[in-house]
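FAQ: What does the model actually see?

It sees only this:
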Amino acid sequence: MDDLRIILSNSEDTISYIKNQAAETQLKIQAQFEQLHQALRHEESDRLAALKREEEEKLAGMKEKISEVSEEMRSLQESFSALESELDADDMTILQNFKAIQDRCNSIPLGAVDMSGTLIDVAKHLSNLKYSIWENTNDHLQYTPVTLDPNTAHPYLILSDDLTSVRYAGRSYGCPDIPERFLKSAEVVGMRALGAGSHHWTVETGSNGDWLLGVTSTSAPRNVEVSARPENGFWTLCSRDGELRAMASPPTPLAPGSPGAPVRRVRVQLDYSGGTLRFFDCSGDDDEDDDDDDDDTLLYTFESTFTEMLLPYFYTQSQHPLRILPENVVVTALRKKVSKSSVHSVSCESSSQSRS
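And it is asked to produce this:
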């Protein structure tokens, strides 16, 4: 009976937690949509202003042309009046003034006003409009290759609102005890399991000196304390007490990519099909959008035959956050000829950017 009461109490607490989760998630969704709405409203305002400017320029040009035409009409009317006056004269006077009359007739401008380019350039404003808007609002859009799963985070960990960074709080925030959650060590994993193919992500460790990064198998234990080593389903790099180690069996001490300088940024590169996991020191890439990997230094390579799906793995007991860096998204239009028709496709390519 006591066990049932405990289960009932825990279930009621979980219901309350779910409601709080839903409310907080709703606010975060609304906040991100509001950011997009603001960006779209700004883009709309700029485009409507550009259209208004062109309208005013075209109208001003047309008014100028109308003024020119009116002036020509006035001049034409004066010429006609002068001709009528001269034609009313006697024949001898007309003959004497024939050359002047002929020159006056030839000087009357007929159809001399250039009307080209007078209309609104509608195509300029509407061509690929949705794509252009997306392209111009790219600063407000970020793609992060790994998103942390808050339902797996140890109760002492705090995740950012966008689920791309984690830091150690040192106290519990009352998370429900569920099978997915790490309970013995300050660990969290990514939300998406990785399988066949190649995957990579970059983590900014910054001033954090107590961390493990890498991957773990989906079946690795979460409610018992084990060493983060390959035999237990963990392939990781460890930083602790100023030392860097590959958590192989046994652990292998490593030197940072830049002698005397701590590792501040680590790129994790998984080739699942090829059975390799590589760690690179990319601390020299100060620019988040720097996609040049030539200066990155290989720190360590795990070689293994992976038999199950893997999850990006993070551990820290530091109040300084570990942050997964966003990557550039490149959109390429591909043209393919299929019989007599052409098909356009758009492909997205991303480029970059504890246990012990």
